[in-house]
Design a protein that fits this description.
It is globular and about 55 Å long. The chain has helices at about 5-25, 45-55, 70-80, 80-90, 90-110, 130, 155-160, and strands at about 40-45, 60-65, 140-145, 165-170. A 4-stranded parallel β-sheet has the order 1-2-3-4, with helices on one face. Helix content is about 45%, strand content about 15%. The chain has 7 helices and 4 strands. The protein has a single domain (about 5-185), classed as 3-Layer(aba) Sandwich (Rossmann fold).
Length: about 190
């Protein structure tokens, strides 16, 4: 996995969110679909994209986020997956400074809305935690792996708390083995 810049990550997320919204646009043209009942389901990166998509598009009324979370800085710093550690982990001092900056940014977003706050780092705009306040009081289900090596439990719980404590389930498994539970997820 090559290291991507903040700008490259932003473009990947932006494109994915636009594509989700285009599917909702398409669904709204279909007589056989109830546009009042549009939901998204996302796994891993798809969960991050689904959370952002639901936050910015009120036509998406519900979501299921599987092995997902928020606070990308915390995810890459605390993940057990070597690929994230190798490419994105920073020194402890840089991490703490970044978390302080992000916390200040999140407080300002909570007060003014993300549209009216210039992020100190572009990457804040592709972090579900930035949009968590827009998911409060909305139907949301989080399904997570108890031994997730990519999304640390702490990052999931922080996001869960920021979303207003929606329904959450922890399945015994890892990030890459959670699919074994798919037949049982209803």
């Amino acid at each position: 996995m090559p290291r991507l810049s903040d700008e490259e990550w932003f473009e990947i997320y932006r494109t994915a969110v636009v594509e989700v919204r285009q599917v909702v646009d398409w669904a709204s043209t279909r007589a056989e679909l109830d546009v009042q009942r549009v939901g998204v389901l996302g796994v891993s990166f798809g969960g991050l994209v689904s959370a952002i998509s639901m936050a910015v598009d009120e036509r998406i009324t519900t979501a299921a986020l599987i092995v997902s979370g928020g606070n990308s800085g915390k995810i890459v710093q605390k993940a057990k997956a070597r690929v994230l550690n190798r490419e994105y982990r920073t020194s402890e001092a840089e991490y703490r400074a970044g978390q302080q900056q992000y916390t200040r940014y999140l407080a300002e977003v909570a007060e003014k809305g993300f549209e009216d706050v210039v992020p100190p780092r572009q990457s804040y705009l592709n972090d579900p935690m930035t949009f968590a306040g827009y998911l409060r009081q909305r139907p949301l289900l989080m399904i997570n792996a108890r031994w997730d090596e990519f999304i640390p439990r702490e990052a999931t719980l922080d996001f869960w708390e920021a979303c207003g404590r929606p329904a959450i389930t922890w399945l015994p498994g890892t990030h890459t083995a959670i699919w074994l539970w798919y037949p049982l997820i209803r």
